[in-house]
Design goal:
The complex is a heterodimer of chains A (507) and B (311).
Chain A (H helix, E strand, L loop, with lengths): L5 E10 L2 E11 L4 E5 L6 H8 L7 E6 L2 E3 L4 H7 L1 E4 L11 H7 L7 H14 L15 H13 L5 E5 L7 H16 L3 E6 L2 H7 L2 E6 L2 E6 L6 H9 L16 E10 L9 E9 L3 E5 L6 H9 L9 E3 L2 E2 L5 H6 L2 E4 L14 H9 L6 E2 L2 E2 L1 H14 L16 H13 L5 E5 L7 H16 L3 E6 L2 H7 L2 E6 L2 E2 L3 E2 L5 H7 L5 H8 L1
Parallel strand pairs in A: 3-8, 3-9, 6-7, 7-8, 13-20, 13-21, 16-19, 19-20
Antiparallel strand pairs in A: 1-2, 1-4, 4-5, 9-10, 11-12, 11-14, 14-15, 17-18, 21-22, 21-23
Chain B lengths: L8 H27 L7 H19 L2 H25 L4 H19 L25 H5 L4 H19 L1 H11 L1 H6 L4 H27 L11 H11 L4 H23 L6 H19 L4 H4 L15
The chains are: A alpha/beta (507), B mainly alpha (311).
Chain lengths: 507, 311
């Protein structure tokens, strides 16, 4: 038996109130792509941060090629040969590619030399990059390339990738996988974190599954079905949301020729967007992050104003109206960012329920707040959407991501909207809560509402939506009916791999 | 009656450099602080603290340069209080900065008792010999006190530091996205504390320039809003050092012109002229932060946001 590259023995890390990792042990061999599977909050991030030296474990040890390994800071991990591609990009928008790469190195060469090396290494691996471009102007796929190149320049033995494909189009994922397989062929190891099971089955030869901080199983993912893997992750059998056939009714939301300048320097301008949603219909809008999703939601919600006749709810023009007037007319929205946009972090659930529900639920009388009604409203959301919390007096910040998401989506659904627009409804939410939210959206449409779901999770859109549009650089494609739509076609609608594909052919 | 012929452009330019130096020093310090992602609204307080400590040390020791070192130290010490409160005790930056200004104004008045009406030791002009005799160029470039040159050297050094040095790149990274910088293993707080101290030292030096060279005398509240102008200047300069120099000289020019016009007996009430520099600052800020200019107005991404190291 050969010595493993990295052996982890009995790692435990506790935070006040939670044990993030409990007696975690596993080994990563040389030249192996090892999957780390688990739901949100299963302790994957804590574990990889420990390996990368950002967190020190309470007990347990690690061995690197049979020698003790206990990094106290990322530069020690990098010196040993560990590199990490972060889930939320650790990039600096206002700086160029070369500077971003230099910041991730301990001893960067002068920028000009570095730029030449970036050009060379990036073309070697089929991920071409222009070192002089500003990172804020790059697409998500290109930004990830910056991170990967930054790691590769340090010649790592172990590359940690935390949810690398969550922002990529299917074609970009293929290119990434080719790069990863090439790295494996060179004898490097990869620790691959994901909850996308098909990817793991396609790429990895071993998998360690975490649940609530503990290793619950190790297996060869190629020998398991996605369903078996999912059940190991969640610990219970899963029920998929039920889909019922619906007949579309009257047009409830219509948008014609919506063009808006991006409000911020790194935002995306909307270009001539047209969409129609009928009663009982769910329109899915897919796209890689940063292609105008936030701007589209803001324009529909009324945070950004548009020419009056461009947006119509039940044939009533609303373009110039603000969010409250639109709510009164039945157009409700739930933005992506839970803390700080959909909910005020330090306010209680009752106060948060009041924020959007005040008028439709008559929680205010003249200028006074009817606290009793507001509390009842919050309690009814908590009860109906199974929000796990001690009560409506708890601050929004104290809820877990999934529970808060159920609350903010539930808050809009409970107001019986004619039109509901949600952005990333299940982002960072565990599987059970995600299924509940999707079911609620489908039930709402079943009840005669028009629903727009903006999401980067293509599986989710194909599951809930009746028709699908792709949002690409601020433009919306024509809708296509979901039944019969393949992942391949969806990927092409999303703009495929853009210049990545071309560049790949060229190398 | 107005007599514009009495205005000598060469004298005007030389005078505007003197008028601009205190705000330039304070602004270049604050620029570094904001590039590191911290908004310190206490510039006014640090300036006036520098003005009084510099004055007191110069008068007591008889050496103006010792006074300037003391002023920079005083400003930096006050800034470190801000750093402690905002970086370690997680106090709100805006509130703490305002408190620092109020504290500085009161504290300097207390320290300055007994120094009113005293004359500080003179700071000699640098002697450039025959260079100073060159027509036009001589009076503008070669007849100043050392601190005018020091301020320009600091601007050049900050520009080089931010643009070409590794430490400067790290500082910009911390200001642009502190979570990412932390994830890469940089010490966000330490970088910020150092930047805050530098900003305090520059503001203190700017204050000392007022009390030791420009006025030169100590009076309570003598900075008279110069710290606020410096803050506006950083935005005006869109966080670029040479633009800060340009802005400071533009502002110094308006101040000087306003004084000259008063002396020339312009019939506009004095109050309007005195208002002019501030009005121009507001107009410039409005113009620069609206419309297309806004897109190039690249504020550091993490500016003013508190940093909590997670995990």
């Amino acid at each position: 038996m050969t010595t493993p590259l990295l052996a982890i023995e009995g790692l435990t890390k506790a935070y006040p109130g939670v044990i993030a990792n409990e007696e975690v042990s596993f080994v990563i061999g040389e030249g192996e792509i090892h999957a780390l599977l688990g739901e949100n909050g299963a302790g994957k991030s804590t574990l990889v941060k420990t390996i990368y030296g950002l967190i020190r474990p309470d007990t347990g040890q690690m061995q690197w090629r049979a020698a003790p390994y206990a990094p106290t800071a990322p530069h020690e991990a990098r010196a040993t040969g560990v590199a990490m591609v972060f889930q939320h990009f650790s990039l600096f928008d206002a700086m160029d590619v070369a500077e971003n790469v230099a910041l991730g190195m301990d001893d960067p060469p002068p920028i000009r030399q570095l730029a030449a090396r970036i050009r060379q290494v990036s073309t070697d691996y089929g991920l071409p990059l222009d070192p002089g471009r500003l990172v804020g102007d790059l697409s998500a796929g290109e930004r990830q390339r910056v991170e990967i190149i930054r790691c590769l320049l340090q010649n790592p033995q172990l590359l940690i990738m935390d949810e690398p494909t969550s922002v990529l189009t299917p074609q970009e994922v293929d290119i990434l996988f080719q790069t990863l397989r090439k790295l494996r062929a060179e004898g490097r190891s990869i620790l691959y974190i994901s909850h996308k099971l098909d990817e793991i089955r396609a790429l990895c030869e071993t998998a360690t599954i975490l649940r609530r901080g503990k290793v619950v199983a190790s297996c060869d993912p190629r020998e398991k079905t996605s369903r078996q893997l999912a059940e190991m992750m969640v610990g219970t059998a899963l029920t998929a949301p039920q889909r019922v056939g619906r007949d579309p009714g009257a047009v409830l939301l219509q948008v014609d020729g919506l063009s808006l300048r991006a409000p911020s320097a790194f935002g995306t301008s909307l270009k001539d967007i047209a969409l129609t949603v009928r009663a009982g219909e769910i329109l899915g809008i897919g796209g890689v992050a940063g292609n105008g999703q936030d701007e589209l939601l803001a324009a529909l919600a009324g945070e950004l104003r548009a020419p009056h006749h461009v947006i119509r709810v039940q044939d009533q023009p609303v373009g110039r109206f603000g969010p409250n007037t639109r709510r009164a007319l039945g157009l409700l929205c739930a933005p992506e960012e839970r803390l700080g946009h959909a909910a005020a972090p330090d306010m209680s659930l009752t106060e948060n329920a009041l924020l959007t529900g005040a008028w439709r639920e008559k929680l205010v009388w003249q200028v006074f707040i009817d606290w009793k009604r507001a509390r009842n409203f919050a309690e009814s959301i908590i009860a109906r959407f199974d929000v796990r919390t001690p009560g409506p007096h708890v601050a929004a910040r104290a809820l877990s991501g999934g529970n808060l998401q159920k609350f903010v989506i539930g808050r809009e659904i409970m107001q019986r909207p004619q039109v509901l627009v949600v952005n990333q409804p299940t982002w960072g939410v565990d599987a059970a809560a995600a299924a509940a939210i999707r079911q609620a959206l489908m039930d709402l449409a079943q009840g005669g509402a028009a629903v727009v779901v903006i999401s980067q999770d293509l599986d989710e859109l194909l599951e809930v939506a009746d028709s699908f549009c792709a949002l690409n650089a601020g433009r919306l494609s024509a809708p296509r009916p979901v039944p019969g739509l393949t992942m391949e076609q969806v990927g092409l609608m999303l703009g495929g791999a853009g210049d990545m594909e071309v560049a790949h052919v060229a190398t | 009656m107005m007599d514009l012929s009495s205005i000598n452009p060469v004298v005007l330019v030389a005078a505007l450099m003197v008028a601009a130096t205190p705000i330039l020093l304070a602004a270049i310090g604050e620029l570094v602080v904001e590039k590191a992602g911290v908004l310190n609204l206490g510039v006014e307080g640090m300036m006036i603290t520098g003005a009084v400590t510099g004055f007191a040390f110069a008068v007591t020791s008889g050496n103006p340069y010792l006074g300037m070192v003391a002023a920079a130290t005083g400003g930096a010490l006050l800034a470190l209080i801000f750093a402690l409160l905002t970086q370690y005790l997680m106090a709100n930056q805006v509130a703490t900065g305002l408190a620092l200004t109020l504290f500085g104004l009161g504290f300097s008045a207390l320290l300055g008792q007994g120094y009113s009406g005293v004359s500080p030791p003179r700071t000699p002009r640098l002697d450039f010999g025959w260079l100073a005799e060159i027509p036009v160029l001589g009076p503008i470039v070669f007849r100043h006190d050392p601190l005018v040159y020091v301020s320009i050297i600091i601007v050049a050094a900050v520009w080089w530091f931010l643009r070409y040095s590794r430490a400067g790149r790290i500082l910009r990274a911390v200001g642009e996205n502190h979570d990412a910088a932390h994830a890469l293993g940089y010490r966000v707080r330490m970088v910020r504390v150092a930047a805050i101290a530098f900003g305090g030292a520059c503001a203190g030096l700017g204050g000392a320039y007022l009390s030791l060279i420009r006025v030169p005398q100590w009076t309570e509240g003598m900075t008279a809003g110069a710290g606020w102008i410096a803050l506006a200047l950083v935005v005006f300069a869109s966080w670029r050092p040479w633009r800060a120099l340009l802005g400071a000289y533009l502002f110094g020019g308006i101040v000087t012109l306003q004084l000259t016009l008063q002396a020339a007996g312009w019939r506009i009430p004095v109050e309007y002229l005195a208002m002019a520099p501030y009005l121009v600052t507001i107009v410039v800020l409005v113009v620069i932060s609206s419309g297309r200019a806004r897109r190039t107005l690249a504020a550091p991404g993490s500016l003013g946001r508190p940093f909590h190291a997670a995990g």
